[in-house]
């Protein structure tokens, strides 16, 4: 039997809250956090809706428990805040004999400072302390240094599926016996770099995004960070942590279709979800809820919807995208939405897909429109798909949910 | 155990024109070493390559070369490591947005995404299998190899395509020179160790490897293990590490025939290598390769090519020798790299 992988800690900062409790509260109140950009200086200000963490650079130092010093990108501060919360929750500072890793994800690294100081970088020595933050590894190493994680440290960048792949690598590293526990997730700060990049692709909505709506018009970009602590079954005996849930399945595939577009039939998404199910040992009917990638673009939502129909047939679970709450936090999204999905297991709720009005004509299902409470949720799927067709799907389940399922499966087999 | 069953490599050496191992040593006097690029239409449809930036073309071509070399048509996983991704594309966007935020050309933005090469290779091959990209300085390629080991353990007959890709540009050289990474002026790559000045000679390259769980006729060598060790507040203890690492393979220090070091001509950083070599491998053969490819975050990809070439051909070319010790045999090579004494990595390669 391969080792089971448990989630024992989490931490998160987004535009709907600075920590787990605040994010949960905003979700329960169906209160989104998107609006016009206030922290980032961009001439696109009047044209865009973003999920921006409503804190200045200086205020983020305060949340991170640091004195303001030069050399920190906004990206790394967001990462440190969420990673600290997760590490405290999963008591990473205890049991120092355990092999502990950090796997972090980012797509543009510390570009938030680099784009401000790029001309200085080219012409003078005044901002040299920020040159290192150009590299994706910078925020990861700042987190590792702060938390003293040294057994395995790396950074993943597969665009918008980055953090989901960080969690997946974490699970595989533990299962292989190389590590006992892993802090895995991702961070992303809004930048002019990717705001303008996405704008050039004409896939940003100027109004609140409407995933899975017939009249959806694109993405609201967001920022934040989210990390989870993963532990092996054996590690739990050492740490004495009580697991929040189990990371039961993972699938990573490539669409191999187009650099920025999903295939019409969502083959990559279908395969990622299918492989995740296979690894989890669950049947498709065991999935209570899918936290969809659901960016709000024409292309993604139809393609993902088709893939869900293909895999789940006429028994489609409840589906929603939580991106109208937070915006699309790109490299943090996979971990952030994993946590939102885990909340569903913990509190037996399903998050609404805000701003939904009309079903996509080509699809047979609509997303959940209003908060659903007191609903049995035993297993959830969280999808993250990225540029390059890098598609990853994760499955989380309640720690003791499998007994009933196994009995059920036994009857059917 | 992973077997290196195919190699494709584009570097400042003439590595792509001949299957011969290090056919002719290229001498440069330059600020950084640039790759000698192949004729891309042999690897990519011209209609597709027209809009691709240089790094992406180099990556795809090297991936194609390695697959042809191994006779592999569909890998079970595509894994890339790149420290910086497409610097050229990123600079184009930075240049534009720092002047004025107007409607950008979307192509550089798309290509600036770090996973572009792994996904472009997948698109070329229509390969829907596992696909990932690591971007952690000098751990980028090594983490990719760790991922390859995981794959092989999960699926022993898997063929894994693993690549190491980075480029240098003049702007990036100017920027990173400010923090002491590079020599202040052009140097001769074959006289890199003469001056003993701070800063390395920068370089670039694309190296792809087809890795499999089985030895076959095209096998170069066996990649027995890879390790990344971060040194935060002296967390890395070379003595503890090296014994533990080698003993996993029932080897001791005396079993290493050749130590392949990442020495790059930086008088501040090279002593880390010579201290390590002097302490654990005195009297052994010490070799180096970064005078041939330059320093970059995934230069160990070139290092793995060198180790593979030595073992397959059973030759130890003069140009690689750091000391005068001739190895008794060419069976076990330890490749050691470090970056700023923070990111230490090791590969054990065996004949």
Task: Give a description of the structure.
- The complex is a heterodimer of chains A (413) and B (351).
- Chain A is an alpha/beta fold and 413 residues long.
- Chain A has 13 helices and 12 strands.
- Chain A has 2 domains: 7-239, Peroxisomal Thiolase, Chain A, domain 1, CATH 3.40.47.10; 247-412, Thiolase/Chalcone synthase (Peroxisomal Thiolase, Chain A, domain 1, 3-Layer(aba) Sandwich), CATH 3.40.47.
- Chain A has helices spanning 20-28, 57-63, 74-89, 111-123, 137-147, 162-175, 192-200, 233-239, 267-280, 298-312, 323-326, 333-347, 402-412, and strands at residues 5-13, 50-51, 100-105, 152-156, 181-188, 221-222, 224-232, 245-254, 289-291, 318-320, 379-386, 390-397.
- In chain A, the strands form 2 sheets. Chain A has a 10-stranded mixed β-sheet with strand order 4-3-5-7-1-8-12-11-9-10, with helices on both faces.
- The longest helix of chain A has 16 residues, at 74-89.
- Mean pLDDT of chain A is 95; it is low at 403-413.
- Chain B has 2 domains: 2-212, Peroxisomal Thiolase, Chain A, domain 1, CATH 3.40.47.10; 221-350, Peroxisomal Thiolase, Chain A, domain 1 (3-Layer(aba) Sandwich).
- Chain B is built from 11 helices and 12 strands.
- Chain B has helices at 46-49, 54-70, 87-99, 106-112, 116-125, 140-154, 170-177, 238-247, 270-280, 290-293, 300-313, and strands spanning 2-10, 29-30, 77-81, 130-134, 159-166, 187-188, 205-212, 221-230, 258-261, 285-288, 332-339, 343-350.
- In chain B, the strands form 2 sheets. In chain B, strands 4-3-5-7-1-8-12-11-9-10 form a 10-stranded mixed β-sheet, sandwiched between helices. In chain B, strands 2-6 form a two-stranded antiparallel ribbon.
- In chain B, α9 links the parallel β9 (258-261) and β10 (285-288).
- The radius of gyration of chain B is 19 Å and the shape is globular.
- Chain B starts with a strand and ends with a strand.
- The interface between A and B is large, with 66 and 62 residues.
């Amino acid at each position: 039997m391969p080792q089971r992988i448990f989630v024992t800690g989490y931490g998160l900062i987004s535009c709907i809250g600075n920590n787990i409790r605040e994010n949960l509260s905003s979700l329960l109140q169906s209160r989104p956090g998107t609006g016009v950009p206030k922290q980032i200086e961009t001439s696109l200000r009047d044209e865009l809706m973003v999920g921006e963490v409503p804190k200045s650079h200086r205020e983020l130092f305060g949340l991170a428990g640091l004195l303001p010093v030069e050399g920190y990108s906004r990206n790394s501060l967001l990462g440190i805040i969420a990673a600290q919360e997760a590490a405290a929750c999963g008591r990473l500072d205890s049991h120092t004999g355990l092999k502990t890793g950090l796997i972090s994800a980012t797509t543009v690294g510390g570009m938030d400072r680099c784009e401000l100081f790029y001309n200085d970088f080219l012409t003078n020595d005044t901002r040299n302390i920020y040159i290192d933050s150009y590299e994706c590894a910078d925020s990861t190493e700042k987190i590792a240094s702060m938390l003293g994680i040294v057994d395995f440290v790396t950074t993943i960048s597969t665009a918008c599926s980055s953090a989901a792949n960080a969690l997946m690598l974490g699970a595989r590293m533990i299962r292989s016996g190389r590590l006992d526990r892993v802090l895995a997730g991702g961070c992303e700060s809004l930048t002019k770099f990717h705001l303008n990049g996405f704008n050039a692709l004409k896939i940003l909505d100027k109004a609140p995004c409407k995933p899975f709506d017939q009249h959806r018009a694109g993405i609201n970009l967001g920022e934040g960070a989210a990390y989870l602590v993963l532990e092996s079954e054996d590690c739990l005996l050492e740490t004495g942590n009580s697991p929040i849930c189990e990371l039961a399945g993972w699938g990573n595939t490539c669409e191999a279709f187009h650099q920025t577009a999903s295939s019409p039939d969502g083959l990559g998404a279908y395969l990622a979800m299918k492989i995740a199910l296979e690894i989890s040992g669950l049947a498709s009917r065991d999935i209570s809820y899918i936290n969809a990638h659901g960016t709000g673009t024409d292309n993604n939502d139809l393609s993902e919807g088709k893939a869900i129909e293909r895999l789940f047939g006429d028994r489609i679970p409840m589906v929603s995208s939580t991106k109208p709450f937070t915006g699309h936090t790109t490299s943090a999204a996979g971990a952030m939405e994993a946590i939102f999905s885990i909340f569903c297991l913990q509190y037996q709720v399903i998050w609404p897909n805000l701003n939904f009005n009309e079903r996509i004509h080509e699809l047979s299902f609509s997303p959940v429109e209003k908060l659903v409470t007191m609903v049995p949720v035993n297993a959830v799927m969280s999808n993250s798909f990225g540029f390059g067709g890098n598609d990853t799907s994760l499955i989380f389940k309640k720690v003791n949910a499998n007994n009933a399922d196994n009995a059920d499966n036994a009857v059917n087999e | 155990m992973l077997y290196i069953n195919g190699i494709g490599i584009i570097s400042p050496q003439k590595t792509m024109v001949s299957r011969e191992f290090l056919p002719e040593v290229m001498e440069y006097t330059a600020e950084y070493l640039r790759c000698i690029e192949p004729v891309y239409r042999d690897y990519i449809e011209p209609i597709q390559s027209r809009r691709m930036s240089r790094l992406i073309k180099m990556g795809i071509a090297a991936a194609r070369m390695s697959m042809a070399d191994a006779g592999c048509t569909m890998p079970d996983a595509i894994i890339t490591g790149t420290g910086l991704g497409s610097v050229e594309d990123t600079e184009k966007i930075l240049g534009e947005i720092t002047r004025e935020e107007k409607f950008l050309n979307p192509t550089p933005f798309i290509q600036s995404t770090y996973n572009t090469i792994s996904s472009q290779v997948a698109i070329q091959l229509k390969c829907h299998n596992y696909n990932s990209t690591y971007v952690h300085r000098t751990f980028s390629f090594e983490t990719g190899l760790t991922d390859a080991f995981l794959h092989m353990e999960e699926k022993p007959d898997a063929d894994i395509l693993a690549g190491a890709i980075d480029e240098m540009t003049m702007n990036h050289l100017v920027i990173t020179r400010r923090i002491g990474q590079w020599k202040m002026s052009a140097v001769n790559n074959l006289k890199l160790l003469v001056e003993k000045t701070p800063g390395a000679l920068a370089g670039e390259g694309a190296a792809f490897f087809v890795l499999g769980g089985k030895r076959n006729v095209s096998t170069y060598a066996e990649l027995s293990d890879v390790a990344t060790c971060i040194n935060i507040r002296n967390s890395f203890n070379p003595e503890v590490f090296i014994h533990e690492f080698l003993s996993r393979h029932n080897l001791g220090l005396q079993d290493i025939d050749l130590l392949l070091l990442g020495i790059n001509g930086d008088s501040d950083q090279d002593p880390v290598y010579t201290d390590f070599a002097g302490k654990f491998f005195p009297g052994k053969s010490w070799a180096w390769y970064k005078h041939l490819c330059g320093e970059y975050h995934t230069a160990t990809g070139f290092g793995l090519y060198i180790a593979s070439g030595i073992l397959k051909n059973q030759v130890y070319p003069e140009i690689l020798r750091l000391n005068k010790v001739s190895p008794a045999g060419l069976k076990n090579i330890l490749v050691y790299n470090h970056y700023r004494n923070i990111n230490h990595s090791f590969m054990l390669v065996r004949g």
